[in-house]
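To: structure desk
From: M.T.
Subject: fold request, one chain
Message: Could you run this one when you get a chance? Sequence is below, nothing fancy, just the single chain.
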Amino acid sequence: MHSSPDRLTSPPRRHDAYTLCGRRTTVGAVLQVVTLPTVLGYAYWLAPEVAGERVETLRQGLRRDGEGSAFLADAQTAKMMITPQTGPDLAELVSRAAGMPKHVLAHTASLLEWKE
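Reply: Done. Structure tokens follow.
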């Protein structure tokens, strides 16, 4: 799940994204990399060696807690919008971003002036 403000003060414009990225063919890929932390929100990370049954138990517990009325009431009080995301959905997003071609990652790094 991730949180976001009730409304954006300045909505993103597609034209700005195309201008920022320079080439239409890389826009979607660059935006996937750049927005990944926002899309993931607050996440729990586990080592690859953690057994699948344990991962599933944790996912079930977090899903159950996230569906609880007290949690949702607290989120509403804090003016947070909650968007549930499943573990497999998040894993797919991370996998997709990690599998981006090197030229897309290099282009993203140059646009954002990332340093090694």
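Reply (cont.): Residues 1-8, 11-15 have pLDDT under 50 and may be disordered. Let me know if you need anything else for the meeting.
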